[in-house]
Amino acid sequence: xxxxxxxxxxxxxxxxxxxxxxxxxxxxxxxxxxxxxxxxxxxxxxxxxxxxxxxxxxxxxxxxxxxxxxxxxxxxxxx
Length: 79
Hints:
Elements: E1 5-10, E2 15-20, E3 27-32, E4 35-39, E5 46-52, H1 54-57
Antiparallel strand pairs: 1-2, 2-5, 3-4, 4-5
């Protein structure tokens, strides 16, 4: 079964959470300013990404930002 990617923005904390599959315990590795990669400590599998201070990265709607990660996206099958 394909793992779905979930996004959640905590407006109060100004943090964007990206989870791959169901959220689960992980260790964080800082990979950029206010950007944390979430890794399963047992398998080494990437399970998420946390971006702190998200609103300061996008002061206006026209701003563009680059995060220090690459992604491969797939549409899940409808089976």
